[in-house]
Amino acid sequence: MLALDDDPLSLPTPPARPAVRMPWPLRLRECVLGYLPLLLMALLALATWWLVKSTPNAPEPGSEAAVRHVPDYTMQGFKTQRFTPQGALQVQIEGTQMRHYPDNDTFEVDEVRIRSLGEDGTVMRATARRALSNGKGTQVQLMGNAVVVREALDGQPPLEIRSELLTFFTETKRVVTDQPVQVLQGSNDMRAAGVDYDHRSGLAQLTGPMRARLDPPGRRR
To answer: Where are the transmembrane segments (predicted)?
Structure first.
Protein backbone atom coordinates (compact mmCIF):
# COMPACT_ATOMS: atom_id res chain seq x y z
CA MET A 1 0.00 0.00 0.00
CA LEU A 2 1.25 3.46 -0.91
CA ALA A 3 1.03 6.44 1.34
CA LEU A 4 -0.98 9.45 0.11
CA ASP A 5 2.11 11.53 0.26
CA ASP A 6 3.80 9.11 -2.08
CA ASP A 7 1.15 9.51 -4.79
CA PRO A 8 3.10 9.24 -8.02
CA LEU A 9 0.46 11.44 -9.80
CA SER A 10 0.95 14.50 -7.60
CA LEU A 11 3.19 17.20 -9.01
CA PRO A 12 5.81 18.97 -7.02
CA THR A 13 5.00 22.62 -6.03
CA PRO A 14 7.06 25.06 -8.13
CA PRO A 15 9.29 27.30 -6.16
CA ALA A 16 7.97 30.89 -5.53
CA ARG A 17 9.36 33.50 -7.87
CA PRO A 18 10.88 36.57 -6.33
CA ALA A 19 8.80 39.78 -6.72
CA VAL A 20 9.87 41.89 -9.68
CA ARG A 21 10.03 45.66 -8.95
CA MET A 22 8.68 47.73 -11.85
CA PRO A 23 10.66 50.72 -13.07
CA TRP A 24 9.39 54.07 -11.71
CA PRO A 25 8.12 55.37 -15.10
CA LEU A 26 5.84 52.35 -15.37
CA ARG A 27 4.67 52.76 -11.79
CA LEU A 28 3.92 56.45 -12.46
CA ARG A 29 1.93 55.57 -15.57
CA GLU A 30 -0.08 52.98 -13.66
CA CYS A 31 -0.80 55.50 -10.95
CA VAL A 32 -1.88 58.14 -13.45
CA LEU A 33 -4.11 55.69 -15.28
CA GLY A 34 -5.70 54.71 -12.00
CA TYR A 35 -6.55 58.32 -11.06
CA LEU A 36 -7.36 59.46 -14.63
CA PRO A 37 -11.19 59.31 -14.26
CA LEU A 38 -11.01 61.36 -11.07
CA LEU A 39 -8.74 63.93 -12.72
CA LEU A 40 -11.09 64.25 -15.71
CA MET A 41 -14.06 64.85 -13.43
CA ALA A 42 -12.15 67.51 -11.53
CA LEU A 43 -11.16 69.28 -14.77
CA LEU A 44 -14.77 69.14 -16.00
CA ALA A 45 -16.01 70.67 -12.75
CA LEU A 46 -13.37 73.41 -12.95
CA ALA A 47 -14.30 74.21 -16.57
CA THR A 48 -18.01 74.40 -15.66
CA TRP A 49 -17.26 76.80 -12.79
CA TRP A 50 -15.16 79.02 -15.06
CA LEU A 51 -17.92 79.17 -17.68
CA VAL A 52 -20.49 80.16 -15.07
CA LYS A 53 -18.25 82.93 -13.71
CA SER A 54 -17.38 84.20 -17.20
CA THR A 55 -20.93 84.31 -18.55
CA PRO A 56 -22.43 87.84 -18.23
CA ASN A 57 -25.45 88.16 -16.04
CA ALA A 58 -28.81 88.21 -17.77
CA PRO A 59 -30.45 91.65 -17.87
CA GLU A 60 -32.96 92.29 -15.15
CA PRO A 61 -36.62 92.24 -16.16
CA GLY A 62 -37.67 95.57 -17.61
CA SER A 63 -34.13 96.83 -18.21
CA GLU A 64 -33.27 98.05 -21.70
CA ALA A 65 -29.96 98.43 -23.46
CA ALA A 66 -28.72 102.00 -23.70
CA VAL A 67 -29.69 103.64 -26.96
CA ARG A 68 -26.78 105.12 -28.87
CA HIS A 69 -26.97 108.70 -30.13
CA VAL A 70 -27.11 107.78 -33.80
CA PRO A 71 -29.82 108.71 -36.33
CA ASP A 72 -32.43 106.07 -37.04
CA TYR A 73 -33.51 107.72 -40.29
CA THR A 74 -32.68 110.67 -42.55
CA MET A 75 -34.69 112.70 -45.04
CA GLN A 76 -33.61 114.76 -48.04
CA GLY A 77 -35.55 117.94 -48.84
CA PHE A 78 -37.06 117.87 -45.37
CA LYS A 79 -40.21 119.84 -44.46
CA THR A 80 -42.47 119.60 -41.43
CA GLN A 81 -45.48 121.69 -40.41
CA ARG A 82 -47.45 122.09 -37.19
CA PHE A 83 -50.98 123.46 -37.04
CA THR A 84 -53.15 124.97 -34.34
CA PRO A 85 -56.27 123.09 -33.13
CA GLN A 86 -58.25 125.40 -35.44
CA GLY A 87 -56.21 124.23 -38.44
CA ALA A 88 -54.09 127.34 -38.96
CA LEU A 89 -50.41 126.92 -39.81
CA GLN A 90 -48.32 127.61 -36.71
CA VAL A 91 -44.74 126.74 -37.67
CA GLN A 92 -42.95 125.29 -40.69
CA ILE A 93 -39.41 123.90 -40.58
CA GLU A 94 -37.54 122.81 -43.70
CA GLY A 95 -33.98 122.10 -44.80
CA THR A 96 -31.80 120.22 -47.24
CA GLN A 97 -31.39 117.19 -44.95
CA MET A 98 -32.83 116.02 -41.63
CA ARG A 99 -31.47 113.38 -39.24
CA HIS A 100 -33.67 112.03 -36.43
CA TYR A 101 -32.13 110.80 -33.14
CA PRO A 102 -34.39 108.37 -31.23
CA ASP A 103 -32.53 108.46 -27.89
CA ASN A 104 -33.73 112.01 -27.10
CA ASP A 105 -36.30 112.52 -29.89
CA THR A 106 -34.48 115.38 -31.59
CA PHE A 107 -33.81 116.11 -35.21
CA GLU A 108 -30.91 117.91 -36.84
CA VAL A 109 -31.50 119.94 -39.99
CA ASP A 110 -28.95 121.28 -42.48
CA GLU A 111 -29.53 124.69 -44.13
CA VAL A 112 -32.61 125.19 -41.99
CA ARG A 113 -35.41 127.65 -42.78
CA ILE A 114 -38.18 128.34 -40.27
CA ARG A 115 -41.42 130.29 -40.61
CA SER A 116 -43.43 130.87 -37.43
CA LEU A 117 -46.85 132.55 -37.38
CA GLY A 118 -48.42 134.08 -34.26
CA GLU A 119 -52.09 134.58 -33.39
CA ASP A 120 -51.59 138.36 -33.58
CA GLY A 121 -50.38 138.11 -37.16
CA THR A 122 -46.70 138.13 -36.27
CA VAL A 123 -44.46 136.38 -38.78
CA MET A 124 -40.98 135.35 -37.69
CA ARG A 125 -38.44 133.78 -40.00
CA ALA A 126 -35.17 132.06 -39.08
CA THR A 127 -32.26 130.64 -41.04
CA ALA A 128 -28.96 128.97 -40.13
CA ARG A 129 -26.43 126.54 -41.52
CA ARG A 130 -27.60 123.89 -39.04
CA ALA A 131 -30.34 123.50 -36.44
CA LEU A 132 -31.11 121.11 -33.59
CA SER A 133 -34.79 120.90 -32.66
CA ASN A 134 -36.88 119.00 -30.15
CA GLY A 135 -39.42 116.54 -31.49
CA LYS A 136 -42.29 119.05 -31.51
CA GLY A 137 -40.30 121.85 -33.13
CA THR A 138 -41.08 124.26 -30.29
CA GLN A 139 -37.42 124.86 -29.36
CA VAL A 140 -34.84 125.15 -32.12
CA GLN A 141 -31.15 125.81 -31.63
CA LEU A 142 -29.76 127.66 -34.65
CA MET A 143 -26.03 127.25 -35.29
CA GLY A 144 -23.79 128.97 -37.82
CA ASN A 145 -24.75 132.34 -39.33
CA ALA A 146 -28.04 132.26 -37.42
CA VAL A 147 -30.60 134.94 -38.24
CA VAL A 148 -34.08 135.48 -36.78
CA VAL A 149 -36.30 138.18 -38.30
CA ARG A 150 -39.58 139.48 -36.97
CA GLU A 151 -41.28 140.94 -39.99
CA ALA A 152 -42.79 144.44 -40.00
CA LEU A 153 -45.88 144.70 -37.80
CA ASP A 154 -48.24 147.58 -36.95
CA GLY A 155 -46.01 150.15 -38.61
CA GLN A 156 -42.88 148.92 -36.84
CA PRO A 157 -39.88 148.10 -39.02
CA PRO A 158 -38.58 144.52 -39.10
CA LEU A 159 -36.43 143.40 -36.16
CA GLU A 160 -33.39 141.30 -37.06
CA ILE A 161 -31.21 139.30 -34.63
CA ARG A 162 -27.89 137.85 -35.81
CA SER A 163 -25.43 135.55 -34.03
CA GLU A 164 -23.51 132.31 -34.46
CA LEU A 165 -25.83 130.65 -31.94
CA LEU A 166 -29.50 131.48 -31.32
CA THR A 167 -32.21 129.53 -29.49
CA PHE A 168 -35.62 130.18 -31.06
CA PHE A 169 -38.81 129.27 -29.16
CA THR A 170 -41.34 129.09 -31.97
CA GLU A 171 -44.48 129.08 -29.79
CA THR A 172 -43.62 131.96 -27.46
CA LYS A 173 -41.69 133.88 -30.16
CA ARG A 174 -38.65 134.22 -27.90
CA VAL A 175 -35.02 134.41 -29.03
CA VAL A 176 -32.12 133.85 -26.59
CA THR A 177 -28.33 133.65 -26.83
CA ASP A 178 -25.30 134.12 -24.61
CA GLN A 179 -23.03 134.60 -27.63
CA PRO A 180 -22.07 137.90 -29.31
CA VAL A 181 -25.16 139.24 -31.02
CA GLN A 182 -26.25 142.01 -33.36
CA VAL A 183 -29.78 143.47 -33.23
CA LEU A 184 -30.97 145.59 -36.15
CA GLN A 185 -34.22 147.55 -36.45
CA GLY A 186 -34.57 150.28 -39.00
CA SER A 187 -31.41 152.39 -38.74
CA ASN A 188 -30.69 151.21 -35.20
CA ASP A 189 -27.72 148.88 -34.80
CA MET A 190 -27.03 147.32 -31.39
CA ARG A 191 -24.29 144.84 -30.51
CA ALA A 192 -23.88 143.02 -27.19
CA ALA A 193 -22.58 139.87 -25.51
CA GLY A 194 -26.06 138.31 -25.47
CA VAL A 195 -29.76 138.97 -25.81
CA ASP A 196 -33.13 137.75 -24.53
CA TYR A 197 -35.86 138.94 -26.89
CA ASP A 198 -39.51 138.29 -25.95
CA HIS A 199 -41.98 139.28 -28.66
CA ARG A 200 -44.99 139.07 -26.32
CA SER A 201 -43.56 141.74 -24.03
CA GLY A 202 -41.82 143.58 -26.86
CA LEU A 203 -38.58 143.76 -24.85
CA ALA A 204 -35.04 142.88 -25.92
CA GLN A 205 -32.69 142.61 -22.95
CA LEU A 206 -29.09 143.04 -24.05
CA THR A 207 -26.35 141.70 -21.74
CA GLY A 208 -22.64 142.25 -21.30
CA PRO A 209 -20.57 144.95 -22.99
CA MET A 210 -22.78 146.77 -25.48
CA ARG A 211 -22.41 149.42 -28.13
CA ALA A 212 -25.22 150.89 -30.18
CA ARG A 213 -25.95 153.34 -32.95
CA LEU A 214 -29.42 154.77 -32.46
CA ASP A 215 -31.24 157.33 -34.57
CA PRO A 216 -33.22 160.05 -32.84
CA PRO A 217 -36.98 159.41 -32.73
CA GLY A 218 -38.76 160.54 -35.87
CA ARG A 219 -35.60 160.64 -37.98
CA ARG A 220 -35.66 158.62 -41.18
CA ARG A 221 -32.92 157.55 -43.50
So the answer is: 31-52
Q: Would you put residue 87 in left (φ > 0), alpha (ψ -120 to 50) or beta?
A: left
Task: Tell me how far apart the alpha carbons of residues 182 and 36 are, in angstroms, rounded to a whole number.
Answer: 87
Distance CA 142, CA 163 (A): 9
Residue 160 has pLDDT above 70, yes or no: yes
Residue 204 vs residues 27, 174, 179, 184, 196: alpha-carbon distances, Å: 99, 10, 15, 11, 6
Domains of the chain: 73-213 (2.60.450.10)
Long-range pairs for 188-197 at CB < 8 Å and ≥24 separation?
188/212, 188/213, 188/214, 188/215, 189/213, 190/214, 195/161, 195/163, 197/159, 197/161
**Mean pLDDT computed over every residue of the chain:** 82
Q: What whole-number distance in Å separates Cα of residue 104 and Cα of residue 207? A: 31
Biggest CA–CA distance in the chain, Å, is 169
CA dist., res. 189 & res. 210, Å (int): 11
Query: Are the CB atoms for 153 and 176 separated by under 8 Å?
Result: no
pLDDT of residue 59: 57
CA 188 to mean position of chain CA atoms: 43
